Structures
1.
Amino acid sequence: MKSMVCIKPGSMEYKEHEMPEWKKGLTLLRITRIGICGTDLHAFDGSQPYFNYPRILGHELAAEIVKTDAEGFAEKEPVTFLPYFYCDQCTACKKGKTNCCASLKVCGVHIDGGMSEYFLVPSGYLLHGGSLAADELALVEPFSIGAHAVRRAEIARNEFALVMGAGPIGLATAEMARVAGAQVIMADVNERRLKFCREKLKMDHLANATAVDVEEYVRDVTQGAMPDVIFDATGNLSAINNAFRYMAHAGKYVLVGLQKKEIGFSHPEFHKREATLMSSRNATRQDFMHVMDCMEKKLINPGDYITNRMKFNEVKDKFENLLDPGNGAIKAVVEMD
Ligand SMILES: [Zn+2]
Ligand SMILES: [Zn+2]
């Protein structure tokens, strides 16, 4: 079987492997669709700091079961799976927060991922695909990142949520916040992405941070109250630091994006708001199931996000183009069949 291996930054090669050997407790999958994520692109361009090479990328996966002994699952059944392998022993796991397990192994990051014809997964991580199409199943993971952030924030109906950054994770967060009943405001510096929000996602409150003062804009939209919840999906230090000022009293700030430096904010400003600051990492089975339910009910439409498609044998040639912000890609998927 064939895999696409990221040999080192800037270099992708197809490799032939032995078929993975099926064992009890595992499920052999034939991969059908792979979503390409910012993580994959950063691994390729070398900007992922703690990444080891060579590595098979890919953690946004739709598949079909080849062989399993998992109860309730059948051969040929469409599935997706939780690509975050957890220990089930640590403090976080014992609290059910398997998303931030102390020894978490993320497929395609810490261990090899699914940019392969076949993939072997512990059966406990599988989720039934139900009536969802391969495109949808491949997008469950990125939407779940947004769903988890929204669940962390415990957003209430009609609260104002400001999402900073209209990349795939920011868009997923905005959509899941909308599903939760929030009034969403999106801020970004990229007019193409804001146009996507306006035209495809029918969002009303859009702030282009290069053209308007975001603080003024959100004050206007919220009639002075400011946003109840702020989600950062930029991973940009100055955007993160600035957004502390946009928070309502009793507000919450959820860091979904990640950057490497220390963040800084005014203690008195934070204190007088009795604000809550939290991070949001990956997602849990509960988030995956919520997203799949929203897809089945057509509350979200993953098809809107797929702007680029390629066949598995085109990945080597086309992957690098995805790094060019000028091509306006929101989400690219690899079709295996
Ligand atoms: Zn991803
Ligand atoms: Zn753990």
2.
Amino acid sequence: MSLIRKINYNKKFNKKCFNFTTPSHSQGDFVCPDAEKILGRKFYECDYSETEGFDNLRAPDGVLKELQQNISKIYTSKSSFILTNGSTSGIVAAMLAVLQQNDEVLIARNCHVSVYNGLVLTGARPVWFLPEKDEKWDIFKSVSPEIIERHLKSNPLIKAVIITSPTYEGIFSSIPQISEITKKYGAILIVDEAHGALCNFSRDYTGYAPAIVSGADISVHSLHKTAGAPNPCALLHIAKSSKVNPQDIQDALNLITTTSPSYPLMAAVEATVEFLFSRNGKAEIRKLYDMVEDFITKVSVLENVEVYSGFCDKSKILLRVAGIPALAVAKILNEDFKIEEEFSNDNSLLFLTGIGTSKKKFEALLQALREMSAMDIDADFLCEKTAIALPSMIYTPREAYFHPSEYIDTEKAAGRICSEVILPYPPGIPLILPGEMINDENIKFIMTEKVKVAGISRSSGQEIPEKPEKFI
Ligand SMILES: Cc1ncc(COP(=O)(O)O)c(C=O)c1O
């Protein structure tokens, strides 16, 4: 029986027991009036805990086991895990399952902050590399398989590789090529596919096959980002061919996640996956990519609007208006057209679409761009670009996390070691991580973004190791 059927069955036949258990609202016997106004009673009616027949996500052997097995079949994985704490928890669990203290792990720097969390918890030593930047669009390009090979060849201690594909901006990397290399050197490949929750169903439109069927060991999907599920529904998958032990993932998830996973969210995961796999779901995905294509065709005739056309998931629309800084375009869109983009950098704007993006939204954006393309724009909108370089790592993220630190004025932070994540959000990609040396360029960025900094004190009696950690 599926979880949704089980919940419906209980409701229909009023199978409510006199549960002296959590949650005390007893499936809606009590609902705070203000909560009811925004959530409704239904949310409470399906909010269970591990009572009779509802299984236990920490060691599933009933309805949740069956649900995860069904999901696994749909995604052709060895095992799939429901995450009610987002891909963030999946990434950390994947790292805990495959890495131990001082293990070396090769990581593309444009990773999500959850990878940093995983580094603190595992104590693994990051070997960072910076994917090439596409300066025109101010985004990171695909991960080059050659860089991965160079690192794995020269450093046999690297146990795992972590990359993001598609990236926040939708850029795909070649997982077949990269996984061939990681396999050759015996490293585990973890792919953050949080933004690729539709990958299993959109191959015909994108040409990208999902990571775990292309050779990766582990991937995560945020169903809430593009697949129409509520925050923060997500999945973790282990590839059929992977040597990763599913029990190691289960143990790691048990270590870091709540003992009270949300049944409404698990039911939403089930509904979302079933929908994506269904005829209606396929039609909805087709509709989405058709709308995107139609939008791109119409936008492309506007003289000064350009849409990114590299190897990317087209449902992430990255565009620029020639001659106008992207941040200025964003301001106009926000203020004059009530359109909010997902993210804008110095040169381009990102519009996230997915299940739930209506034709009306595409039309509103198209209309706004039409009007903007005819506007006279003040040259004052021009803004400077931020150069990116890998900072020097003095301590590992874990060492830095547990190191004494103090708050200091940002202007005085150059030459100090960062002790918190400096994280422009979105996209949640760390600029400086704890343990890394702060330089003048960083200060300039932090001051303009008004980010607060905590630094490890050099005068606190702690010696700075002479030789920095390995980095590229
Ligand atoms: C690339 C990437 N990975 C992982 C995550 C974390 O996903 P979640 O919000 O599902 O925890 C995000 C969220 O913004 C992301 O952008």
